[in-house]
Amino acid sequence: MSTPTPTTLRSLYRSLLRELPPRTSATPSPLSTHLRQTFASTPATTPLSPITQASLSDSQSTSSQIASSSGLDGIGATKTLRQKVDEAEQLAIYLKAQRMYVTLVERYNPGMNMNEEERVRLTARRVGMDLPVDYVKGE
């Protein structure tokens, strides 16, 4: 398997951000911040500094210690970059499918979010009737 190119990673990052709900405030959501940090720290997009290489070797030794204490082998405990990219692609596809599902449910069930009174009023209008105005005491 080949390593993903920076263009592929950028496209994947953008597709994941596209599926997140829009944010009204100027600050990004914690999830988008985490995605940015994750994609910014991938070896395919940026060369590693000596400090980053040292921290990666420390984290790999820690993960191998955890794997040996839990009975997992070192290969099964860590994921390769390709596996992480594949999982992110699957997540983007899943999020897009969920967004389409919600859109279709709202489109084909328009009365789903209405209260009972509004639903009755629209049903009466559908057959050509208008409901009488309710009497409210004090008006």
UniProtKB/TrEMBL annotation:
Which terms does the UniProt entry file under GO BP? mitochondrial proton-transporting ATP synthase complex assembly
- Biased composition of type Low complexity is found at 52-70
**Where does this protein have coiled-coil stretches?**
none
Q: Where is the composition biased (Polar residues)?
A: 24-51
Identify the InterPro entries for this entry: Fmc1
- Region labeled Disordered — which residues? 19-76
Q: Which organism is it from?
A: Aureobasidium pullulans
Q: What is this protein called?
A: Uncharacterized protein
Q: Which Pfam families match?
A: Complex1_LYR_2
Could you tell me the superkingdom of the organism this chain comes from?
Answer: Eukaryota
